[in-house]
Design a protein that fits this description.
Chain lengths: ~325, ~700
């Protein structure tokens, strides 16, 4: 196990170095000159050259990259071009928001989706299955901005229960933020729900057909116990992996949802950085997002092995 | 349990296909009932119906199943659980998928004792006692293991332990030993026999293997195309069957100790009709040697006989000896090959190791590089027109030997000579002529046949490429090849998917012969086939060899089949040849202690006959840590002392090139061993040498 973690950590590091290089190159290739963006169109050639030297933009690319990476590792993520704030604080506070939203989403989505999937499988081809399958299929086809807008219509404008705008101020406590989180979390849930529910249904069906279920039934094990202790114990393994991986997506991939609700998460920070050509910010957000994905993958592998005795981590 | 007029069907489109029709069966306490049939007979469907575990698309279409006097269809779920499931048990064919992969074995046994899923020290104690009762020496360790960490034999013992835990009234065994080695099979059968005897439960034993059923069962029912055709006490059924199908099955199985020169197998022509397309009248009529017009018009009923039942119009004539239920014997006998034939394939000190990757830690520690020693030291010689049989348990290195000889794996050491020329180890470096002369037939013909090619094109390629047949003659040669494997010429147009298993295997054989090879390697080539089909293929192989004079290297785990086909036999254990010689000498005393155990484990078709039992404990050791001295010493029942553990055994030579690697001298082995089978399976006489049976 320790060896596995060590190897995977090394692998993770390699991934990060590689993606950082990629991010760096892509941001370099973006159209527009940073100095001109900062100083505006009327800036003199001299001022531009001065700023370039100040920012190190006149040095060779490999040096620029290594300097950036070195600073990043030391915790100096630079200053945002557009807001003038230190990038690190900005990104970390948004990361906190994203984690909150992701956590709440999983809290809602996982029990619902797994429950629906199991129900659909246990009552395969009955009306329960049909209703669940139809509902989840129709939801999965809708883009997030539509489901988000519909939820806002219903819960904010019609019923007035929840705020439509989730732009919480930095430093808002979790409890105070909760009402603002519900609608974005619900929207994200709808995206995950169908996928996880169908996956769960499929793997429960596969496990139900396996001979060990017959063994358990013939032992005289009550059906409830057959389902919980035998079938679900094995059927939820692939679901665990998918959930862990979707956590990575929830942290940094909720671009549309965060924009619809004006929620200050990483996704919105990313769009902001792109719109403003804010390169230091963009680089930092992208790297944090990649790290999130990679960690989620690692956790997925570990969880899978922990629950599956047939896998030994080496 | 009583089955009354039971019919079972599967949904096919809108209708139902009746896979089992009108079966009456009574299972009583203390009686072991055998249910035999080939694939397509409906035996598995019937077993599932008995256990109420038909797949979702299957259903009981007629009749009643009564358990302890109550119709199972009338039980509600809770009553079914308590009144039925708690009182029946199943030991299935595949043990591993029948165990929950995520639960420890001990817990699963405890659950069989108390299905509510509690775990108390008392339950744990009882579970350990059960594991001990099924012959698992270290219950503590086994109970803590997950199923995949145990060997197939151990998994099957766990399932038997669980089956016994509930003290069932009815125990169903569905081919429980089919995927096990014969030595393991023998110990499992011993176990089942003892436990059944002690507990006195009713047993239904489903199997395709006549031998196993003969060893174990009191009464036997034969199924054919979904119908019960005969039902009789085992002693009667195996000696004087009444139904022509039963007779046909018995005549198809090679018996241990009979060779192709003494007996001809009488295969049943044709194949089992699918349940969707049954013939009118008697279902067996198209394949029956006694069929008359009446048989094709009216369906015979299952009639009572003095001790059983039979479904055949003409049974009274068979009974009175007025009609001969045997299939006609194939024309022409096979004569023994010339004793002085030259060697065509010589293998010397062949070895194949698969190196294991060292972990980083081991590398740093400087640990030696370890390897799976699949083949350690194998020397063989195949003569023109002769068959060399290679036998051993799984893990003995039989298949790796074949693959190394063929160049599919590059040998690590040793030489392979074909017609005197040494062959490069890798297939890519072998000259085309050598490849043409050395061909192979696999176990699964699906591996060998391209599903998108017609039979004609599959056979035409090697003819043109290797045998140099010009294009315009190819069609005629393909047709002749098909005829030589007894398939109609029209089969050249067919694709593999349109053929039955036996037909595909014939095409695979024809393809191997297309290149006009000098030597053919058969790796378990008849193992997956039903006995009646296998018999035809074995006859065919004998005839082709006679005509073409090819040498065969025939690999099989089935000793009766090897004994039937082989002129010489080599027994391998852990990658080493431990005994070799003419088939007759290897199959009679003196035996190598390992060969003795193998032979003694083979089920004979002679119910009620007692014979010496030599059983092996445990599994084949890992080929990574091969025991020193004699590799067999960890399991040898005849171990003589420290020299077995410390020194490699010497070769001891008998007459006719018979040789045994053992510390015990041949005379001594001969004097302590008894012949394990005699003429036609008659009781073995101590000290007698076998002259081979007449079938
Ligand atoms: S009824 Fe006729 S065809 Fe059927 S088994 Fe008897 S003799 Fe053969
Ligand atoms: S040498 Fe010893 S251990 Fe090996 S087979 Fe002979 S008696 Fe058994």
């Amino acid at each position: 196990m320790a060896r596995f973690l060590l190897r995977r950590a090394g692998f993770l590091l390699l991934t990060l170095v590689f993606t950082s290089l990629l991010i760096f190159l892509i941001t370099q290739a973006l159209p527009g000159d940073v100095a001109r963006i900062l100083l505006g169109r009327e800036a003199s050639a001299q001022a531009l050259a001065q700023l370039r030297a100040q920012l190190g933009l006149d040095r060779p690319l490999p040096i620029q990259y290594l300097t950036w990476l070195g600073d990043f590792v030391r915790g100096d993520w630079g200053t945002s071009f557009s807001t003038g704030q230190p990038v690190r604080e900005l990104v970390l506070s948004r990361l906190g928001n994203s984690l909150q939203l992701a956590g709440l989403t999983l809290l809602i989505a996982v029990p619902t989706a797994v429950g629906l999937g199991v129900l659909a499988a246990l009552y395969e081809e009955s009306w329960i299955d049909t209703v669940i399958s139809l509902a989840s299929l129709s939801v999965v086809g809708l883009p997030e901005f539509i489901t988000g807008l519909v939820l806002i219509q219903v819960f904010s404008f019609r019923l007035g229960w929840l705020p439509a705008n989730s732009s919480i101020a930095p430093g808002t406590g979790l409890v105070a933020a909760l009402p603002y989180l519900v609608l974005p979390a619900l929207t994200a849930t709808l995206v995950l729900l169908a996928y996880v529910a169908r996956l769960t249904r499929a793997s429960v069906l596969v496990e139900l057909g396996r001979p060990y279920v017959r063994t358990a039934v013939l032992k005289g094990v009550p059906w409830r116990r057959v389902v919980i202790a035998h079938v679900l114990r094995n059927a939820l393994l692939p679901t665990i992996t998918v959930i862990a991986i979707s956590f990575g997506w929830l942290i940094s991939g909720l671009i549309v949802v965060e924009n619809v609700f004006n929620y200050p998460g990483l996704g919105r920070l990313l769009t902001f950085a792109i719109a403003r050509r804010d390169i230091p910010l963009l680089q930092a957000v992208a790297l944090v997002a990649v790290l999130g994905f990679a960690l989620a993958n690692l956790v997925a592998d570990i969880l899978y092995a922990v629950f599956n005795p047939r896998i030994t981590l080496r | 349990m009583r089955l009354e007029g039971v019919s079972v069907g599967y949904r096919r489109g809108r209708g139902w296909v009746r896979a089992v029709r009108d079966v009456d069966l009574t299972l009583e306490r203390g009686v072991t009932y055998g249910l035999v049939g080939e694939s397509g007979s409906g035996k598995t469907t019937l077993a599932h119906a008995v256990l109420q575990s038909l797949p979702a698309h299957g259903r009981l279409l007629g009749g009643r199943i009564l358990f302890r006097g109550r119709d199972l269809a009338t039980l509600g779920p809770e009553a079914r659980r308590r009144e039925f499931h708690r009182r029946v048990a199943l030991v299935p064919q595949d043990p591993l998928p029948s165990l929950n992969p995520a639960h420890r074995v001990g817990r699963q046994v405890e659950e069989a004792l108390d299905p509510s899923g509690r775990s108390t020290p008392e339950l744990r104690g009882r579970a350990h006692a059960l594991l001990e009762a099924v012959g698992l020496a270290d219950p503590e360790r086994v109970a803590g293991a997950y199923p995949h960490q145990l060997s197939g034999g151990m998994q099957q013992r766990i399932l038997i332990a669980m089956a016994l835990a509930g003290e069932p009234d009815l125990l169903v065994l569905d081919e429980p030993t089919t995927n096990l080695d014969v030595t393991t099979e023998a110990t499992i059968l011993d176990l089942v026999r003892r436990l059944v005897h002690d507990s006195g439960t009713a047993v239904l034993y489903v199997s395709h293997s006549l031998g196993v059923v003969a060893e174990l069962c009191d009464r036997v029912a034969v199924l054919y195309a979904g119908e019960m055709v005969e039902d009789a006490p085992a002693t009667r059924l195996f000696t004087q069957p009444r139904h022509p199908y039963t007779q046909g099955l018995l005549d198809s199985v090679p018996r241990l100790g009979s060779t192709r020169h003494e007996v001809t197998l009488r295969p049943i022509p044709g194949r089992i009709p699918p349940a969707t397309d049954l013939p009118a009248g008697c279902v067996f009529a198209p394949r029956c040697p006694l069929a008359v017009d009446d048989c094709r018009e009216a369906t015979p009923a299952l009639e009572a006989t003095p001790e059983g039942r039979v479904r055949c119009w003409r049974w009274p004539e068979v009974e009175a000896g007025q009609a001969d239920p045997h299939q006609p014997a194939p024309a022409g006998r096979l004569h023994a090959p010339a004793e002085d034939a030259e060697a065509v394939l010589e293998v010397e000190h062949l070895a194949k190791r698969f190196p294991l990757r060292r972990s980083l830690v081991e590398l740093l520690r400087g640990a030696p590089r370890r390897a799976v020693r699949a083949v350690e030291d194998v020397s063989l010689s195949v003569r023109r027109g002769h068959t060399l049989g290679l036998v051993g348990e799984s893990g003995s290195g039989k298949s790796t030997t074949a693959r190394s000889v063929l160049g599919l794996e590059a040998a690590s050491a040793g030489t392979v000579r074909l017609l005197g020329d040494e062959l490069p180890r890798r297939l890519e470096r072998r000259p085309a002529s050598a490849i043409r002369r050395l061909q192979m037939v696999f176990q699964s013909s699906d591996e060998a046949l391209n599903p998108y090619r017609s039979v004609g094109s599959t056979l035409g390629r090697p003819l043109r490429r290797m045998a140099g047949v010009p294009r315009e003659e190819a069609a005629e040669r393909v047709a002749r090849l098909l005829e030589s494997v007894q398939l109609p010429r029209s089969y050249a147009e067919k694709r593999p998917a349109q053929l039955s298993g036996g037909e595909k295997q014939r095409v695979a054989i024809a393809r191997a012969f297309a290149a006009e090879p000098e030597v053919l390697v058969f790796d378990e080539s008849v193992s997956g086939l039903d006995v009646s089909v296998q018999a035809a293929i074995l006859n065919l192989l004998g005839e082709l060899q006679q005509v073409r004079g090819s040498g065969y290297l025939f690999i099989s785990h089935d000793l009766a089949v090897v004994g039937f086909l082989a002129d010489q036999v080599a027994v391998v254990y852990l990658g080493r040849v431990v005994e070799t010689g003419p088939a007759r000498s290897v199959l009679s005393p003196p035996y190598h202690p390992y060969s003795e155990a193998l032979l003694s484990a083979v089920p004979l078709l002679a119910p009620g006959v007692e014979r010496a039992r030599v059983r092996l404990e445990g599994d084949v050791p890992s080929p990574v840590d091969v025991p020193g001295g004699c590799p067999f010493h960890t399991r040898c029942p005849r171990l003589v002392g420290p020299q077995c553990r410390e020194q490699a055994p010497p070769w001891r030579h008998g007459p006719d090139g018979h040789a045994i690697a053992c510390h015990i001298p041949l005379e001594e082995l001969a004097s302590v061993q008894t012949a394990l089978f005699g003429d036609g399976g008659a009781p073995a006489v101590p000290g007698a040498t076998s002259e081979g049976g007449d079938g």
